[in-house]
Sequence to fold (926 residues):
Amino acid sequence: MSMLKIEIDGSELEVPHGSTVMDAVNKLGTYVPHFCYHRKLSIAANCRMCLVEVEKAPKPLPACATPVTDGMKVRTNSLAAKNAQNGVMEFLLINHPLDCPICDQGGECQLQDLAVGYGKGESRYQEEKRVVFSKNLGPLVAAEEMSRCIQCTRCVRFGAEIAGTMELGMINRGEHSEIVSFVGQTVDSELSGNMIDLCPVGALTSKPFRYAARTWELARRRSVSPHDSVGANLVVQVKQNRVLRVLPLENEDVNECWISDRDRFSYEALNGDDRLQRPLVRRDGQLQETDWDTALGEVAAGLRKAGKDFGLLAASSSTLEEFYLASRLAKSLGGAADFRLRHCDFSADGKRQGIPWLGMPIAELQKLDRVLLVGSFLRHDQPLLAHRLRQAAKAGAKICVVHSADDDLMMPVAHRIIVRPSDLPGALDGLEEGEIAQIMQSGEKAAIILGNFAQQHPDAARIHASAESLARRWNACLGVLGDAANGIGGYLADLPVGASAGAMVEAPRRAYMLLNTEPEFDVADPVRALRALRSADFVVSLSPFRPGVEDYAHVVLPMAAFTETSGTFVNCEGRVQSFEAAVRPLGEARPAWKILRQLGTLMGFHDFEFDTSEQARDACLGGRNVSSLLSNATSVAASTAGAKAPTIQRVADVPIYFSDGLARRSAPLQKTRQSRVPRAMMNERLLSQIGATSGGPVKVASATGAVEIVVGVDNGLPDGCVRLAGAHSSTALLGAMFGELSIERADDGAGAR
Amino acid sequence: MSEIAAATSAARANALSDASLARIDREIAKYPPEWKQSAVMAALSIAQDERGWLSTETMDFVAGYLGMAPVAVYEVATFYNMYNLKPTGKHKLTICTCLPCGLQGSLDAADHLRNRLKVDFNETTPDGNFTLKEGECMGACAMAPVILVNNKRMCDYMSHEKIDALIKELGGE
Ligand code: SF4
Ligand code: FES
Ligand code: FES
Fold:
């Protein structure tokens, strides 16, 4: 490709064809003031702040929208350019309130900053300013002060281009223009918080953070999100040892400049009332506060007594260091430990040739041109990866889906096969020919990607094996998204030890340790897990929160939340990301790695004496090259006949804000649309079969229990399926996330409604 | 009723007539299939011809029909003042009050209209015969003042006499 020569303020440089003056300016590293321009969004050129002088052009031109031509000479701060920029600023400020001291954005406002450089000391405009009414966009994004909006439309373009759903628009024209959601709807995208960062003024602000602090009062600490396998890089903002806000830390390879709303707003749980601040031990049937020595003494005694008959269930979002010490503890005791708590098929254990991973760097997702997504609630499970695939789809990639639900991915889907969960493995085997096979083989860069649902499926190993053979056949890359924030970390710490999470629950043990795990929500089958825990002689739970279900634990140790500990997460592409604590642990809580270290030492085990988490990390990694350990190859037989398929099957997703203890306790996230009490969703055929009415109550029963729940219609579901979210108290009694259900209307036909 | 079911039945209830849909389809056919939404302006006018105005539900329907976000349709419908977002009187008179027209007597003509009809902009006469609207440049600046009747008929050089005649013709006094 030939390059174009351009001269900017006397410096010459070359840029590729199709570059804009703004691109050239950025390449040169100088600055042209701008509002509507954003490198991740399309060009709108509507703020006019970026006007520059171009030789031979009769008028100043907007740098963001002017293509470079060969030999172009641009002056960004000549008198003409400056005059133009000052003029635009004066116009922008005509209707903008000049009351920065009472604006929430004050101190971090691009308009405020640029007004210092390009505005006048005083306004010449004495007339009345226009007033734009506030809007209610939901619990996360505040649109309280829409008079401050400068109509840059960044928020609108973000919705349409990045989130995949245009939830905001600019209505009316000229000085009547305003940003609205369609007739009073809320903004429901799982990426909506990014609009707050994009808004250059104080029009869109963070509802939870509003007026909590000024930007200059906040200390900034780097961190990594514990919510999904992306490992989004975060800036945790702290005032007086309290986390008051979380923002993205730009990392082009991982999260770019975005984070999901779960990454952004879960911090609200960190300062909640149900944080556990002191150790609890059971006395006379009640959990009572005690001191650390007593508590740890009791744990050591309890574990010693159980000996080998010990099981440790660690949250998949535990740090590498926590996993490592947990794994050592289990080994020292001769017991078992695992972190794959929502899985139920462990038959691939011992048959894997490496640690399952994405199969490529995250950024590569965007470059794929053929994708088969198998069993994934992608927008809920890894919102930022959904965005990556959306960008691929926009660039022309063909996305195919094999799944048991037909949720809107907010991107074009070329072909989809929606089947009952029990038919999922068979559906994959059937892909050797047909439309999807044709699509998948017609591209240059194809990948098959297994989502959380595929990994949590009772036939997960078979699904994996089928996908593997399809990938070979199609010359496609096989990727596993990882249903754990730190799944690769778990394997690196040598987990599972002794037995799988399933086996530990199936055959109850005498003693258990729960590491940041709430058995009523975080496991494949809450009913069986609780039964196992209740039958144990001794259960210790390490948790940042007071347990919701209190009756099984004998000791509860307050552990630090992710912002209060140092540690390491390994994301789905195998990137090892360590972080420091942003704040001190709340109350007497301690980082879990320290608790485990102390316990190990107390019990006289070797190799627990780590002074820092870095030492534990280095001991765990042992100088190994992580990328050489990753592989999705297995030796599982591709096809074995499945068991008899139940007539009515459960399809369980983990709704985005029920996924872990932090999200579940974040008040703003719990107020979103995604967090509404789940309904039993089914297609119209099944609904009329059972004679129920949408919106009416039904009784749903499984092998372990029954619940009464409101029914709803989703015709995207396959026949004979009831979609009922997992990880929620209203469905916990049903136990397993997969399997047979029976369903009947609960109103006895009386007044059918 | 679940939302999905509610949305489906609402879409059915708001469907335009087959004749209108056929007209919209002809408009859609003018563009490549992936640019269906280019037909949004035409689709909205056709919908307005049938319904007289564009309710939220009608716009929702058009959005669904063209595969667009509802708010994107709303943007278009609010940008152009040919679209009626509220029911109007039998005759909608839109007078251009943009600068070029304004300099050539259209503000005076607008005052005359208001006095004659005894309504202000965006209002409808009590008998439901006239709605008065302020418009943007109609590309007829040289013939100011200009008045558009029901989006379709353009009247130019609107002196007070011609305005009186127009009102009379349309059944006013
Ligand atoms: S609300 Fe903010 S981001 Fe949206 S258009 Fe207005 S100023 Fe731009
Ligand atoms: S940044 Fe160029 S016009 Fe807004
Ligand atoms: S300004 Fe009135 S028609 Fe152009």
User: Anything to note?
Assistant: The CA atoms of residues 20 and 46 of chain B lie 6 Å apart.
